[in-house]
Amino acid sequence: MANEEIIKEEDYGVLLYYKYATIPDVEALFNFYDSNCSSLSLLGRVRLSPSGVNVTVGGKLSALEEHIAAVKLNSLFEGTDFKLASCHEPSNDRVSMECGFTSLSIRIVKELVTLSSCPLPRSPEISNAGKHLSAAEFHSVLHNVGNSQDKLVPSSDKGTVLIDARNLYETRIGKFYTPNVETLDPEIRQYSDLPSWIDNNSEKLRGNNILMYCTGGIRCEMASAYIRSKGDGFENVFQLYGGIQRYLEQFPDGGFFRGKNFVFDHRVSVGSSDSRIWGTCLLCSSPFDDYSSRTRCTYCRMLVLVCDNCREKDSSYVCELCQKNSQCIQPTSATEFDDSVEISEVREPEAVSTSDRIALSPLISGPRTLRILRILCLHGFRQNASGFKGRTASLAKKLKSIADLVFVDAPHELAFIYHIRQNGDSASAMENNRPPSESCSKKFSWLVAPDHKGESDSDWKIADSPFDPLQYQKQTEGFDKSIAYLKDLYSKAGPFDGILGFSQGAAMAALVCLHQQKLKGEMEFRFAILCSGFAVNMSNCQQGSINVPSLHIFGSDKGKDRQIENQASRHLASLFENGCSVVIEHDFGHIIPTRPPFIDQIKDFLKRFM
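== Rhodanese-like domain-containing protein 6 ==
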């Protein structure tokens, strides 16, 4: 009996639940989770927002049951669907680390799930979400579609469609199949891509009964509300309550679901009693559905399925979406650039490159093919392409076997100004009142102050006010002109693998990453390198919401960067997804360091994309 009790006590499990409700005191709820989960040795992710909670934690089953009992004491959680499952205990391996099951992470966020990384034309209210259908009701609807006796959904002249609200890497290994319902798979990389797909297919959806499903239900809450917010013709939206997980519990043989349910914890996937494999290897198309190797697309970093026979060490792979969208271009030709060319002052986009010939990105699958990465480089405020190229000559030299740096001028031309230095010597003061005698190249910026007049006078002028080290905080206008300029340049001189920005150039590069969904097909980058960066016009951006692999390089607290504060660069880094971002802090001021170990860290980051 004692041995049986010991075995039961050691049983491990995973608990998933979410609840949309108005949280009057988020800080107090944070303290509860911090205290409760720590005392029970629970590991995983807890996300809190003013509109609810989203929890995925693991631990001993007895501890998870204690946690549920404690949560239920709070009336806010009345009616919450707690999904508790027993499983093996996670080991301290790559899978567990990626899924966040080697530590406890509690965060206060703006939204429980980010429906879009950009502001939406309509802000969906969760109270307007689709009607919940239990697993049994959902199964009945799929079985009886077209049957006029079905009372769960109204009759529709157009019919019924079924939308899978998950990402492509999830739908590869399992989904609902039924001959009675048209199934729509958006084939999205990430959940924030879903609104664009809904918008593009709105006429196809209008007038239908719309059924939706996802892993556990939370993504359907916001997505169904977004569909219903479109108004007439989008009233009849239904969602599987509890998601695929509850459905498989109700129908252990799988019912209408084929394959495995991808889950965001160390289990990776959960299947039914039907052992058939529905996923296929990216390379050989043999049946395969195991993501435990965490193999990813070289271009967009999405998980891909590569079987044990095809997977090789140091190999690179290209997912179906990158292939379909021509993210990778066969090296059938090369574009020439004159290394001595400077940007035309009439704003026709050209490029200053660090090499004479640029190889376009090859389509790679299987063993890695070494090639040069093309990186578009954006200079800082009151700089230009040729000057930035000169300042980064050491960086370009040390990266010459890895990357070609292509420099461009910003589109906003700035006036020539100089500051007067005051001292006690009247003769020196008179001397200081004279403008610089040497001729200077024109200076540009990506963002300007609201009172910018677009001057292009070649005469020097005395600055209106003393130098302000925080002037970058006032330069918030001009994004539309700069993004149009970059799109035009990309169409003529692209494609590029990555984008690098320094100071204000890093702020502009970050805005490009923020708007990646809107820019699809016009300008796409696989990674971003942001040096001494800061955030501009990103106040609505949620922490960790920008899903672009990123390298952040900036001065430490005592890094002697008198231009950009350490906290400003640190805040910008926090807006990028933590799992695919790298931070390098240094003590050398407002520069990009090229001495070891910093250059080695930069090279390591870039080699991920070769």
